[in-house]
């Protein structure tokens, strides 16, 4: 199916789509400066109400978007008003829907012999181990921000903590977030003694097998319930987590509150460019698909960005000034002929608007081959 966008400007159709397609899932807002998941979203009487950690100067014209199965739905909107609680009200101007293809064969885009002529390259590169190093180098500032965040959180959830990757060796919670990149909610820890409930809950099984045996303090404290959410750099790469426990069971409203707190904390650390600094090195791409890509270079110094099985975030720059930010896992590193390094990456996540551009570029390659 073609990935050409379907543009809708009829107000009644726009309202119907917002009512039906923007009800659940991860909704993002994109401005000239930010591209983040919103912490709250509602639509009523033709107006979108949204709250989030936004800068004041460039929020007049935005794009809302959401991934819905094999489609990306996005809408240009203009700011109508703002209230005293920093809630922003937008009027949607259009809706566009585009089909995004799934995994395909790799398409060759450049010769390994001529990296300087490659039409596609990556930059703004940062790996998970580099994030850990950045946090350690700026530990004083990291901890100041953490203390400010925890002060707010502990007012409602006294038994709470923020842990960064590298704080604990072989931390089973951090290993969970590196693999899953999603929160978990153990509503009733005692349910782990019920074989039927345990068999139906993968998070509970992981908790019982890997987390509980190592967390003897929690066992002695008699915790009845636990919520943990990942801290995600650019809402993609885990670099820590927020954990709250209680002697009474948490409810769904607690889970929602901690998830929102986690997203807000993630944004604070992501946006502080003095803590986590990406590299502006440019590296050529030789082949790509919706599921992966090959990156190649001759400069040995660039290998510092890559380790097998590590996570890496970068921006891929496409022709016509289009780009996409994506999270990948480094699957293999090879030194091929003429001392050229080739890195194989599996794509784990692409921000949705970038996925549209990436998909369109791949489709364009296919139509010319």
Tell me about this structure:
- There is one protein chain.
- The protein has three domains: 6-99, Pnp Oxidase, Chain A (Roll), CATH 2.30.110; 107-127 and 277-367, Thrombin, subunit H, CATH 2.40.10; 139-271, 2-Layer Sandwich (Beta-Lactamase).
- Helix 3 (139-154) packs antiparallel against helix 8 (252-271).
- It contains nine helices and 20 strands.
- It has helices spanning 11-21, 128-137, 139-154, 172-180, 195-199, 202-211, 216-221, 252-271, 352-367; strands spanning 6-8, 27-30, 35-37, 40-44, 47-51, 61-68, 71-82, 88-92, 95-99, 107-108, 121-127, 160-164, 184-186, 225-233, 237-246, 283-288, 292-297, 311-318, 322-336, 340-350.
- It has 369 residues and is of the alpha+beta class.
- The longest helix has 20 residues, at 252-271.
- The two termini are 17 Å apart.
- The mean pLDDT is 86.
- The strands form three sheets. Strands 1, 2, 3, 4, 5, 6, 7, 8 and 9 form a nine-stranded antiparallel sheet that branches.
């Amino acid at each position: 199916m073609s990935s050409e966008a379907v543009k809708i400007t009829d107000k009644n159709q726009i309202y119907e789509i917002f009512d039906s397609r923007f009800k659940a899932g991860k909704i993002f807002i994109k401005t000239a400066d930010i591209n983040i998941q919103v912490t709250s979203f509602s639509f009523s009487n033709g107006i979108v109400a949204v709250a989030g950690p936004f800068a004041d100067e460039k929020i007049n014209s935005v794009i809302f978007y959401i991934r819905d199965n094999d489609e990306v739905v996005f809408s240009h909107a203009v700011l109508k008003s703002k209230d005293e609680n920093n809630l922003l009200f937008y009027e949607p101007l259009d809706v566009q829907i585009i089909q995004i293809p799934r995994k395909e064969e790799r398409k060759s885009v450049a010769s390994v012999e001529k990296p300087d002529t490659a039409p596609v390259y990556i930059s703004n590169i940062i790996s998970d181990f580099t994030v850990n190093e950045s946090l350690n180098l700026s530990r004083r500032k990291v901890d100041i921000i953490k203390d400010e965040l925890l002060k707010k959180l502990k007012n409602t959830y006294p038994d709470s903590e923020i842990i960064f990757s590298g704080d604990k060796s072989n931390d089973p919670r951090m290993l969970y977030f590196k693999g899953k990149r999603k929160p978990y909610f153990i509503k009733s820890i005692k349910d782990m003694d019920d074989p039927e409930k345990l068999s139906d809950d993968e998070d509970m099984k992981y908790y019982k097998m890997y987390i509980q045996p190592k967390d003897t303090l929690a066992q002695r404290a008699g915790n009845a319930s636990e919520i943990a959410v990942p801290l995600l750099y650019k809402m993609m790469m885990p670099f820590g987590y927020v954990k709250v426990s209680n002697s009474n069971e948490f409810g769904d409203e607690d889970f929602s509150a901690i998830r929102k707190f986690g997203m807000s904390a993630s944004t604070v650390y992501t946006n502080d460019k003095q803590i986590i600094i990406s590299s502006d090195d440019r590296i050529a791409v030789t082949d790509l698909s919706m599921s992966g890509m090959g990156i190649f270079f001759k400069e040995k110094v660039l290998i510092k960005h890559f380790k097998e099985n590590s996570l890496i975030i970068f921006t891929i720059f496409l022709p016509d000034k289009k780009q996409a930010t994506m999270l990948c896992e480094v699957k293999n590193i090879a030194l091929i002929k003429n001392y050229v390094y080739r890195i194989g990456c599996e794509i784990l996540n692409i921000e949705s608007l970038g996925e549209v551009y990436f998909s369109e570029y791949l489709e364009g390659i296919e139509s010319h081959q």
